[in-house]
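Incident log, support desk, overnight shift.

02:14 A customer reports that sequence design results differ from what the structure should imply. Their input is reproduced verbatim below. On-call engineer (initials T.W.) acknowledged and began investigating.
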């Protein structure tokens, strides 16, 4: 079975981090989420991947190429105009062939795809939508299911007290190729708002099946941050680089921590990082590869992508800092989300 990864969205809610980067390329634990996702699919026996790209596609294509380094084959589809989730799936139709799993590539999860396929086969469904239960679904669309699990209705952003369930679309779909027939080609189509409701209205079997394991939609910077705290707290398990030093401290290869610097767990430090004297890193800090934390600098509750510099005595609290950004000496940042355009890129 092939996987179709939807990775072409503009990620407007996660700007400025996604201004020039596809959201699924945002690092989670110092590695692009998309890389964790591909490794996870490979572990489940899915090694043929179709990637639907649109926003800064070269950032994905240059990183993954044909997928050989990850033991998978990756083919790419391009969209002259943004086609939306269902439009992008339709656009990929010639590369898909038989049954496939479509996945929103910006959802951080450890879903068991094989369990979804089993539910799909047992129900004899045309489409099986992975579902997750959330405490407050008022920001999402919830589903109403019949007793046999088939989905009968979608309710967008239900007011409190008026929701048929707490189950929301997890952004993972097992689909038969026939489900694509009704999707119009060449225009923007939303899978949740158009395709699924019209299949249900036509009496086709759209099944809902619970997704087990960790699940979090990256969506906003706030949720992106939460994913990292879950990672540091051990609620999300991923294959991370570096060595566990015990007590919630993990450090990558070639990293130098000066005498008198303090790592306050939980903390994840990448490779080749330099941490200066009397610097304090953590609690809840993720430092990307090749970063420099200057003398007396302080980084708490923050995520720094690779190649960042927090110069001498700079302080960062509750920040997310994009690749290659330099914080000047003694600058104080609180609750900031900042990023910089790489010098090599045109403005
Ligand atoms: P926001 O602009 O913040 O809503 O983010 P987004 O553009 O990523 O939209 P959304 O979170 O709804 O997208 C869900 C998934 O579908 C993400 O993985 C997107 O990358 C992907 N996606 C959304 N729109 C398109 C599209 O037009 N083309 C392709 N190829 N993928 C898309």
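02:41 Re-run completed on a clean worker. Output:
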């Amino acid at each position: 079975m092939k996987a179709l990864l939807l990775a072409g969205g503009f990620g407007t809610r996660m700007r400025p981090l996604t201004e020039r980067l596809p959201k699924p390329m945002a690092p989670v634990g110092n590695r692009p989420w998309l890389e964790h996702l591909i490794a996870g699919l490979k572990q489940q026996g899915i090694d043929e991947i179709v990637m639907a790209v649109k926003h800064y596609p070269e950032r994905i294509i240059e990183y993954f190429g044909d997928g050989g380094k990850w033991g998978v084959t990756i083919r790419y589809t391009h969209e002259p105009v943004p086609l939306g989730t269902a439009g992008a799936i339709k656009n990929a139709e010639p590369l898909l062939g038989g049954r496939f799993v479509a996945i929103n590539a910006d959802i951080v999860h450890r879903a068991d795809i094989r369990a979804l396929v089993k539910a799909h086969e047992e129900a004899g469904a045309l489409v099986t939508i992975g579902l997750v239960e959330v405490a407050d679904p008022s920001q999402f669309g919830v589903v109403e299911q019949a007793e046999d699990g088939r989905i009968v209705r979608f309710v967008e952003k239900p007011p409190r007290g008026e929701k048929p369930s707490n189950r929301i679309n997890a952004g993972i779909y097992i689909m038969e190729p026939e489900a694509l027939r009704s999707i119009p080609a060449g225009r923007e189509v939303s899978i949740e708002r158009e395709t699924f409701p019209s299949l249900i209205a036509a009496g086709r079997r759209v099944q809902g099946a619970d997704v087990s394991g960790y699940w979090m939609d990256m969506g906003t910077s706030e949720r992106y941050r939460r994913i990292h705290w879950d990672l540091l707290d051990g609620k999300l398990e991923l294959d991370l680089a570096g060595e566990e030093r015990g007590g919630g401290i993990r450090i990558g290869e070639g990293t130098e921590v000066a005498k008198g610097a303090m790592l306050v767990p939980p903390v994840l430090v990448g490779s080749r990082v330099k941490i200066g004297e009397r610097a304090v890193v953590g609690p809840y800090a993720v430092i990307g590869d090749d970063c420099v934390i200057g003398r007396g600098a302080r980084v708490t509750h923050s995520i720094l992508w690779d190649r960042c510099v927090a110069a001498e005595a700079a302080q960062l609290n509750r920040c997310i800092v994009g690749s290659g950004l330099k914080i000047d000496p003694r600058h104080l940042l609180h609750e900031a989300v900042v990023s910089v355009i790489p010098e090599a890129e045109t403005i």
